[in-house]
Amino acid sequence: MAxxxxxxxxxxxxxxxxxxxxxxxAIATGQVSIGDKLPAVRTLAGELVVNPNTVxxxxxxxxxxxxxxxxxxxxxxxADPKLRHADAGRLNILTERIDNIITQALNIGLSExxxxxxxxxxxxxxxxxxxxxxxxx
Amino acid sequence: MNxxxxxxxxxxxxxxxxxxxxxxNLQVPRGxxxxxxxxxxxxxxxxxxLMLGLLRPTTGTATVLGCDCQNLTPQIRQRIGYVTxxxxxxxxxxxxxxxxxxxAFFPGSWDDxxxxxMLDYFELSKKQKIKTLSNGERAQVSLAITLxxxxxxxxxxxxxxxxxxxxxxxxxxxxxxxxxxxxxxxxFSSHILSDVERVAERIAVIDRGVLRADCKLEExxxxxxxxxxxxxxxxxxxxxxxxxLHSRQNEKELELTLIGTTVEQIDTWAKSAGATYHKDIDxxxxxxxxxxxxxxxxxxxxxxxxxx
Lengths: 137, 308
Known about the structure:
By secondary structure, chain A is mostly helical.
């Protein structure tokens, strides 16, 4: 499993949020697969030299987002996407963010075609196929 | 365990006519790394020395590990590790002699293996004399002799001041390893906010002798924000928004630094003041600290926050 997390204190983003974002991205791009075990809280805290509570908080947010499961006494594992059904609230937030991005894109003069192409290019970076969004294995 | 390891009540200290610490009320819960922040001369070292009974308060009290600070018994002191500002050690001793000397104050709890492992890691030898060491090496010795007794409460006064990045990192590693042992608590003061951000769970901000914040680090991160408002016409003369720290403006723009103001309050105010557009300005911990302790500010961050 290749999970490389690089945090930068002094950035605008809190450290727990940096961990959440990077683990989330690793899952989205398939760098880690379903059932992979994440490093233990203490191990990751030791590697990153951060307070163990910060890592624990990041893991609990990932769990709320249903990206990982924690099995008591065993560890934290990447969850099965079929069980990660998106709830309406999160979908709304996402739609709002996409709207913001589209607004900005139109304001700097991109055409609808440009925007679609940019989205497709970025999606490909995450290893999705143009049709169903299934991840290449 | 959710008990309080350090508690001060109206702790006040005058040096002559100078007020160094003004009615300090803070609580350090067990099991956390607690960062004490403040500008130079804010009163951090005074607070620490009062907690350790090294200074006598003018008024007020403090208890550490359940014991009044002015009457700390040797038994209580054995449970506390203290790193002084500047890592002052007996210069004429060899490292080994210093360890033996220190060991005598911590009968039963001194971990000789931990001490030796740390010396090896730092590539130091017990035969070296303290006075021949560099600042960084002296800091490493200071860290090793403080952690070796595995103190229940570790108090460090600006431990990484003047140290290079690698040795600073060793201090942070030492702290995160120490906190993982059950029931350990660390209080440290620092000016290096990126270090504080890495390891501290709670912070206190002392500003000119007055406690201005005592909360979780992430609450502070979420509470202090800067918003820029744009106006089609002139900027309103009076800014009446909850949690205003200070404001800056030019003709059509108004930049407000706010504390604890909710998104709804910001939106409501923007609408009522007739702003055409507003957006959050990114702030890192350092920006937030500077804005929070700017000379014209005095709002605090704890009255609206519940201390467990």
